[in-house]
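Hi everyone, sorry if this is the wrong subforum. Our group has a chain we'd like a structural model of before ordering constructs, and none of us has done structure prediction before. Sequence below.
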Amino acid sequence: QVQLVESGGGSVLAGGSLRLSCVASGSIARLNAMGWFRQAPGKEREVVAFIIDGGSANYADSVKGRFTISEDEDNAKNTVYLQMNSLKAEDTGVYYCYRDQWGSGRYWGQGTQVTVSS
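Answer:
Right subforum, don't worry. Here is the predicted structure as tokens:
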């Protein structure tokens, strides 16, 4: 099993910033992709950003230019970050980290709440 632990959520005013972190531990295997989804109240879970191993970062149109996804600098590929700038009220929701591993599927974190007030 793989455990994903998110941190960094909180409450901010519109225009503010937050940095989310997600650390993977346990049965770490070859990485396919890591990224973030979010779910706003009453809405479907939607992709926010993801990195495919060896590839570029990908973003939802709604966050392009404001959010930046990155991996840990020591290339261990066990941690993924989401830097969120210029936050808007519509960014409010629970943010979930995920990790896709070759041969063992997708793992999810427990979620971290982000609340942006205007």
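For your construct planning: The longest strand covers residues 18-26. The chain is about 0% helix and 60% strand.
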